[in-house]
Amino acid sequence: MSRFTPEEKVKLARHPDRPGTADFIDALFTDFFEQRGDRFCGEDPSILGGIARFHGRPVTVVGHRKGKSLEENLRCNFGMPSPEGYRKAQRLMKQAEKFGRPIITFVDTPGAYPGKEAEERGQGEAIARCLALMSALEVPIISVITGEGGSGGALALAVANRVLMLEHAVYSVLSPEGFASILWKDSSRADEACGVMKLTAQDLRRGGIVQGVLREPEGGAHTDWQAVFRTMDAALTRELAGLEKWKGPALARQRYEMFRAMGQGLPPAGREEP
Amino acid sequence: MNGTFSRRRDRLLTYRAMREGKITSSRRTRCSACGAESPQLEWDRSLQVCPRCGFHAPVGAYYRLSNILDPGSFQELEEKLAPADPLSFPDYPAKLEQLEEATGLKDGAVAALGRIEGRRAVFGVLDSRFLMGSMGTAVGEKITRAAEYADKKRLPLVIFSASGGARMQEGIFSLMQMAKTAAAIQRFQSRGGLYISCFTHPTTGGVTASFASLGDIMLAEPGALIGFAGPRVIEQTIKEQLPEGFQRAEYLLDHGFLDRIVPRSEWRTVLSQLLALHEKGGRP
Ligand SMILES: [Zn+2]
Q: Which residues is A75 bridged to in the sheet?
């Protein structure tokens, strides 16, 4: 299925011209109404979210935003959220449950921001609350890892009933650079880390961590956005239809059990029911 | 089986003797915080808190429990739970074997049923001697089972964290333990369970960003380093030096993330009070 090595996939996943959350929202949703702020102290543009229609149906959509120009990159902190971003995400997702809207998340972040103010305001607590909240929500949640799925900062938006990945996206416990520097005290061995980390969509599908892999155009998502949008649209339509039949408590239970089974030594690969 | 039990019993009895100063030794131990050397006897009497500067040195899980639980009430849960090697990571199984030999632990967490002044609770304790108490699949599974057991038995849950974060050698499977443990805690709490989270030095990364930050009551030992990102990573990112005391328990208390700082000698008293205030496991 793939001619790219894990190192090459990491580069593709980080490609500046890869479609991001804002692009997917523009292309696949109508009536997007952006919701801002965490209602405690701030607004973090590195997480973009709001209400929109997906084929006519109201949904809540949330995702990491890296920004397209240098100015935007800086404003969005290169897609590395602060606690305000995660608390905004919690607010939007709780609201989705209140109004019975399915939740769609797009994951693309190097990780949560390791900054002084982020720590001061409880980065760990903010991520932990996202995980706890998402695990129990009684509406369908679909997450797509579209680019970089970096660490807890990515997982915080990916506790879903169905976790999908674009073909050349990556998802890992830490960036390959961080991994190499922690384990081998040498961040220049990042390429070697890519190989042992099993961070490709194909590896993760086999390990039962993601439930579906979405084909990218030859050469990667940045080469043909329209093709990616068509694939994404079809996948979201299919997964939403599959989850629609489920009642709230059954959705929460399925999500709990799916994550419960991860890493028991028996990965739930091949489990097809939502 | 009997062998394991008697070894554990011996260990607990040794700890008690150490605490009561019955084992004497002329050994002196250097504090890794202030550098001062003090007689081992003084360290033992202070529960491994530096007699000079008050640094709460990291201690093993069994030792910690032996200081907190009613004598004879310790009953280990899930002691056979062993780590997996889901990435077939180079040299990892050998490393695990070596650590098991050195610590008597299969992985970096101990779960137990015990009593404090007669009140039953389920305990989970991370052990930083085992790969920095990092959370791989076995640690995540043990914490999850402790929460599920407490839920089933309608008992309070007390967890002592000490962790460098996710276990790198188990890759993405480690990351998923964050979601798994947070979900188990959420479920336990939503059914009325009381969860007391106790941070000890140091707790960072994926443990801070999952079960450890979700306590109904949040406590920490004095001086404990608590954070998501480690101080070195932050300094490299912001390219400035962090202020003295940054990410320490006292700092978190000031910023609204803890209820109280509890010196090591007071855990029993404080936990006993909290358990009494939530009689019947906190359920109405
Ligand atoms: Zn000292």
A: none
A82 — contact with chain B (CB < 8 Å)?
no
Q: A261 to chain B nearest CA, in Å?
A: 8
Q: What is the ipTM of this complex?
A: 0.95
- Domains in chain B, please, with CATH? 58-277 (3.90.226.10)
Our count of domains for chain A comes to: 1
- Kindly tell me the burial class for residue A1, based on how many C-beta atoms sit within 10 Å of its own C-beta (0-12, 13-18, 19 or more): exposed
pLDDT in tens, B244-258: 999 999 999 999 999
Does A235 fall in a domain?
Answer: yes
Q: Which residues of B touch A267 (CB under 8 A)?
A: 86
- Residue B32 Cα to ligand 1 midpoint, Å, equals 7
Instruction: Compute φ and ψ for B231, nearest 5 degrees.
Output: -60, -35
The H or E element that residue B108 is part of is: none
Residue A200 resides in a domain = yes
Residue A217, Cβ neighbours under 10 Å: how many?
15
Residues of B in contact with A123 (CB under 8 A): 209, 227-229
In a domain, A154, yes or no: yes
**A168 part of a folded domain:** yes
For residue range A104-129, list pLDDT tens digits in order: 999 999 999 999 999 999 999 999 99
pTM for the model: 0.94
* Chain B residues touching residue A122 (CB < 8 angstroms): 213, 255-257
CATH no. for residue A212? 3.90.226.10
Whether A128 and B208 lie within 8 Å, measured CB to CB: yes
Residue-range definition of the domain harbouring residue A55: 6-260
